[in-house]
Specification:
alpha/beta; 8 helices; 6 strands; about 40% helix
Length: about 280
């Protein structure tokens, strides 16, 4: 339907008289294309209108508001959207830590892929907790390169989304998110402890660490970072959705993950030696 200035003026007047506030969500998915802001959400100046609007009154009101509306809805430069900078390795914590809203919104999937490694994959918010087929494919290839063979469907996937449905608005802040995820990780690492955690994320996961911890350890963020509450070291690299959207991100991300492969190979070798020693005792 073609946008009409006169019709929009009347719509705003009727909604205002009925006490109805129109809302237009403005949540953008990662790597989404820019879009022009729809002008219908602009609040119009107060205008006196008779309670019973006749055809003549309608034309008069439209004429009065037309000049104002044309200025409001005139084509303007599209709002600049901050683009994610293509970095050599992981996203920078210094930028992300100042960019989080008071009420953050994020979602991820958690997988324990071996006795030595668990994975957190950031997924688009409101994606209904699903890892799409292309994401599962690139994850399987990365794990294979790390020396971990995962059979399809053999690894349980646990989905987490913040805020939780049962939390009220006052409980949806970043600090509450940290505490909730601390409990979530404590349970997962208690049931299936792992020494290494690989995180695929396009924003630094402030919710994964205590407040100010990333800022105090920023020099170590390109490599393995010891989690202060668990016997697990964490490596944060680019999100899988970003790698699918930009092939150039795959190589630097893999270079970063090579340090993780060194650790996994050492753990596998140590485990094999321990098993051989145990078997030798019973020969």
């Amino acid at each position: 339907m073609t946008f009409n200035v006169d019709n929009e003026a009347l719509r705003q007047i009727y909604l205002q008289k009925m006490g109805i506030q129109p809302w237009f969500p403005r949540y953008s998915l990662p790597h989404a294309a820019q879009q022009r802001t729809y002008p219908a959400g602009v609040m119009l100046p107060q205008t006196t209108v008779a309670p019973d609007v006749s055809v003549d009154d309608t034309k008069a009101d439209s004429a009065i508001l037309q000049s104002t509306l044309k200025e409001i809805v005139a084509p303007a430069a599209a709002p600049r959207v901050k683009q994610t900078t293509v970095l050599d390795t992981a996203p920078q914590a210094s930028e992300a830590m100042g960019s989080h809203d008071a009420q953050p919104h994020f979602a991820f999937s958690y997988l324990t892929v071996s006795s030595h490694l668990a994975v957190i994959c950031e997924i688009p918010y409101q994606s209904r907790g699903r890892l799409q087929a292309p994401v599962r494919e690139i994850l399987a290839k990365i794990l294979e390169a790390l020396g971990i063979a995962v059979q399809p469907g053999a690894t349980p996937v646990i989905h987490f989304q913040w805020p939780l449905q049962e939390t009220n608005e006052q409980e949806q802040g970043l600090e509450n998110a940290r505490q909730t995820i601390h409990g979530f990780l404590a349970r997962q690492l208690r049931d299936r402890p792992v020494p290494l955690l690989l995180v695929f994320s396009e924003q630094w996961p402030d919710w994964l660490f205590p407040a100010n911890y990333l800022a105090e350890n920023e020099q170590q963020l390109q490599g393995l970072l010891q989690h202060p509450h668990f016997a697990t070291r964490v490596l944060v690299t680019r999100g899988l959705h970003a790698m699918l959207a930009d092939e150039a991100l795959k190589k630097p991300a893999w270079i970063q993950m090579k340090s993780l492969k060194v650790e996994l190979d050492a753990l596998a070798k140590s485990a094999a030696g321990t098993q051989q020693h145990a078997e030798g005792q019973y020969d």
